[in-house]
Amino acid sequence: MAVKEAIAKAKDVSWSLLARVLLSERNTKRLEQFLDIQDPQKHVAEAIDMVHHGHTLVIVANHESHADILPLIVLSRQISQATGKNFLVPSAASLNTGHQGGAITSFFEQIEPWLESNGLQMVPFVRQRDVEQYGLGKEENGKSARRLIAARADGFNFAWFPEGSVQGGRRVDPKNPNSERFGIQEADPAFGKFISKIIDQGPTVFLPVGIHGSYKLLDPDTKKPTAAVMGALGLRTIGLGEISPVVSVKVGKPFLGTEIPQATGRKRDGADVGKRIMQKLSPLV
Question: Quick count: other Cβ atoms within 10 Å of Cβ 118?
Fold first, then answer.
């Protein structure tokens, strides 16, 4: 077991070093070229108009891979420049601590300045999965929760992956190991609870985003960049080859928080809110 762990750690270090070499500032920006964003501009424009009229915007997207952050970067840049408001993105604390592997931690360390320059700020949360799988404690979650609750008053919008994990909701043809992986799972319970509070605070508009194919960039199981993406970036680094889009991104029509009714009495049920938002998101996946 010790030998296997040492080999795994060595591989993580190797991937981390390779990522740091290939994910230069220029190559980081080239990652956007892997995206095919099918965006009726009227949908984004409508969301921007709603923000100008006092609504807090919540981008909600399905979660196939850690590379799903890339479409959010493109959208947040466009919306932030138009509205002057940046986005908070709840993220797994295990990305920061290295528990998900050195390669994926290195990836996010490399792109963090790019995220922030495009209007995205990550807010780490210790998920229940982080507790059970990695032994992390939730002591710091209160601080992150307070930041999210105060976000509207502080002038932020949100970008959220309701599922909270890339490990569920995938459908693969068992007879074809090379078949496409797609689908969504239920929303994480914490998502519904926070969104209920955000809706109750004031006017809220949601922009649904369906993502398919991001696992071709960052493998959700190994949590490492795929050989295809590293090879393409490597060739572009020396001026060779072309980058072709492999990730389909569909931007849906915005919907209002008032379209999510209160389940019982005056209080919204977090689980019901999460379910209804996933129903709105599902047709785009």
Answer: 21
Beta strands 157-160 and 56-61, pairing class = parallel
Query: Under 8 Å CB-to-CB from 229, ≥6 apart: which residues?
Result: 31, 34, 216, 217, 218
Residue-wise pLDDT for 67-92, tens only, equals 899 999 999 999 999 999 999 999 99
Per-residue model confidence as pLDDT tens digits over 190-218: 999 999 999 999 999 999 999 998 888 88
Say what the pLDDT of residue 119 is: 95
Q: How far apart are CA 190 and CA 60, in angstroms?
A: 14
d(CA 68, CA 273): 23
State which amino acid sits at residue 41.
Q
Q: Burial level of 3, CB count in 10 A (0-12/13-18/19+)?
A: exposed
CATH number at residue 84: 3.40.1130.10
pTM, two decimal places = 0.86
**Cα–Cα separations (whole angstroms), residue 177 to 43, 171, 231:** 36, 11, 22
Number of domains the chain is built from? 1
What is the rounded CA–CA span in Å between residue 202 and residue 153? 10
Quote the tokens at residue 222.
């190994």
- Two tokens at 148? 């999210």
Q: What are the tokens at 85?
A: 């408001």
Q: How far is the CA of 206 from the CAs of 1, 16, 50, 51, in angstroms? A: 47, 35, 10, 11
Tell me the residue range of the domain where 102 lies: 2-284
- The number of residues making up the chain comes to 285
Phi, psi for 119 (deg, rounded to 5) = 90, 15
Which segments within 95-187 are labelled E, that is strand? Answer: 120-125, 157-160
Separation CA 32–CA 111 (nearest Å): 12
Strands 120-125 and 255-256, sheet pairing: unpaired
